Amino acid sequence: MRLQSHRSLFTKYGHVAELVYAYVSEAYGAILGSSSLPVPTKDIIQIVNNGMDLAKQKCVPCEIGGQPMKAEEAALYLKDVPEWRASANFKRISREFEFKDFKEALAFVNKVGDIAEEQGHHPDIDFTYGKAVIELSTHAVGGLTPNDFILAAKIDKIGRW
């Protein structure tokens, strides 16, 4: 049995946690001659899902000229940050946040700035009285990377006052 490529597994199984389980299952089958792992227990599922929690991950530096995500891959990551919207060409994601006044919007933007500095990944931010719009894209590759979704998940955590 030949292991499938990362991209074909991603397309076949959709969700990131399912991708990990499918990859491990296929690797296990290739080694032991069995095509499936035992049914995962609740503990195993929790470990896999916690490991895939985007808000718990860290952005990694990207190289200029690297490859952005394909639209299908970005669409799968969007499932983990459902309040964010992708642009029509899947080159960026954005979300609008509403607040009671300018001061609250400014405090939010400052928190986003702190997280962006900590992660080394910086969003485009537009804010005004009672509103902030955050737009994410990895400029070095001219499109989306996992970093954009990691930062989106971290911003979602502070966006829930």
Please give a structural write-up.
The protein is of the alpha+beta class. The protein has two domains: 1-52, no CATH class; 60-161, Gyrase A, domain 2 (2-Layer Sandwich). Helices cover 47% and strands 12% of the residues. It has six helices and four strands; from the N terminus they run H-H-H-H-E-E-H-E-E-H. The chain has helices at 6-13, 16-32, 42-51, 71-78, 102-119, 146-159, and strands at 85-86, 93-98, 124-128, 131-136. The protein has a four-stranded antiparallel sheet with strand order 1-2-4-3, covered by helices on one side. A hairpin with a 2-residue loop joins strand 3 and strand 4. It starts with 5 loop residues before the first helix and ends with a helix. The model is unreliable at 1-14 and 36-50 (pLDDT under 50).
